[in-house]
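Need tokens for this chain, all 123 residues.
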Amino acid sequence: MVNRIIKMVQTIVIAYFMSAILLVVLALAAYKMGMGEKIVSIGIYAVYVISTCAAGMIIGAKMRSARAIWGIAAGVVYYMIIFIVSLILNKGIAQNVSGILTALVLCILGGFIGGFFSGSVKK
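Here are the structure tokens for all 123 residues:
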């Protein structure tokens, strides 16, 4: 059990490191190209999907069984951390409930896809 938790924590740390790099690239692109708010929002959602897909692939390869389920779990954990931090920083739930649900669905879907295709990834 402890081994599984350690693997999940390692995976989530890698996913957030990847997210940080991608968000910096997105911020620089938005600054240099003068992207609108809508494009930046789409970019943020893309970062969620890419990061959770990578997390799903990593955790699926580490666990070697029920890969898609582990990928979904990684997506949920990734999202829950974002959600909790957002609650703390915003001192409550943000007004954009559709954005909250969209992010949740994208994180779960990204994790599932990564876990599903993790069979080709080496440990």
